[in-house]
Amino acid sequence: MRVLAVGAHPDDLEILCAGTLARYRRDGHQIIMAHACNGNCGHFIIPPDELAAIRAKEAEAAAALLDAEVLTLEGVGDGELVADDPAQRRAMVELIRRARPDVIITHTPDDYMPDHVATSQLVFFASFFASTPNYKTGTAPHHEAVPPIFYMDTLAGANFLPEEYVDITDTLEIKLKMLECHQSQLVWLREHDGIDMKEFVEVTARFRGLQCGVRYAEGFRRLRTWPRATTARLLP
Q1: What was the pLDDT predicted at 192?
Q2: CA-based diameter of the chain, in Å?
Q3: CB 153 within 8 A of CB 208
Q4: Which domains does the chain have, with CATH numbers?
Q5: Mean pLDDT over all residues of the chain?
Q6: Helix (H, G, I), strand (E, B), or coil: what is residue 102?
Q7: Coil, helix or strand for 105?
Q8: 91 touches 135 (CB < 8 A)
Q9: How far apart are CA 198 and CA 76, in angstroms?
Q10: How much is the pTM?
């Protein structure tokens, strides 16, 4: 399968679903890691343009650990994502057409942060219209299917009750290594907010593991709208 994961910012996927992506990759599936925003506001000291370049390199380094492809919406800064903006809708449709996913993982639509919510809404819109030939975007041809969508966990699991779980006991280590690639965020969050993000991620994974009877897990909910249903289990 081709698995497309779409996060709002360059480290969101590492925090929320990288263990599952590593499971997919271990099973031989192709991984595409996409970001809607460039992360240029994720610091108090580093200037936006410099930070965006740093975070793009961090995202590439993390994706390389899974031999994953990286895609992004060009020129969209943090706080600039608008779900009903026609240009951004077309850009997301083009991204999905390039990725040609069999399944998509993204933020839940009632997440805590506006960029996360807008990403979820854009993916919902674009994953449908990517299959519509008359919805014109760039150079990629229309996708043949309306892919299933899985919503990944929220930070600390707040306001999120999983319906499905993925055992990441064997892939937690690579998840943490991917997260370590995002040093601009790990250092900033530790020094400015007193948050050890690696500990944060591990504790959340342990909590989800307790819920489903394994050591570490990631939780998901499925978008249950026609025509995205299937009897097959698509999570690893």
Answers
A1: 85
A2: 50
A3: yes
A4: 2-222 (3.40.50.10320)
A5: 96
A6: coil
A7: strand
A8: no
A9: 27
A10: 0.97
